[in-house]
Amino acid sequence: PLGVEFFDLGGRLVGRGIGASGLGKVGTQEFRWNGRDPSGALVPPGMYLCRISVEADQGDSELMRIINVAY
After folding, report:
1. What is the mean pLDDT of residues 54-70?
2. 12-17 long-range CB contacts below 8 Å, 24 or more apart?
3. Three-state secondary structure along 20-52?
4. Which phi-psi region, left, alpha or beta, contains residue 7 (left: φ > 0; alpha: ψ -120 to 50)?
5. pLDDT tens for residues 36-59?
6. d(CA 50, CA 6)
7. For residues 11 and 60, is the Cβ–Cβ distance under 8 A?
8. Hey, is 59 helix, strand or coil?
9. Which of 41, 48, 53, 67 is most buried, with most CB under 10 Å away?
């Protein structure tokens, strides 16, 4: 499984990526986030962390990236 989560710089979870194309299939995976927190409010403009995690037979892997939100 592949997971995409978004965190503010304080480490609080502010969103999860929603798969836009066939999860669990080999190839390109696309995820979207509408910029809303778990309560449905828009997050403030600024920098956020995106964590992409993959569970695999030969071990789990994780990648962190910075994303910017602007309105």
Report:
1. 88
2. 13/38, 14/38, 14/43, 14/48, 15/43, 17/50
3. CCCCCCCCCCCEECCCECCCCCECCCEEEEEEE
4. beta
5. 999 999 999 999 999 999 887 788
6. 5
7. no
8. coil
9. 48
Collapsing DSSP to helix, strand or coil, 11 comes out as coil
Rounded to a whole number of angstroms, the distance between the first and last alpha carbons of the chain is 31
Residues 61, 20, 3, CA angle at the centre, nearest 5°? 20
A 10 A CB-CB count for 6 gives: 21
Identify any residues that bridge with 16 across adjacent strands, giving them in sequence order.
Answer: 5
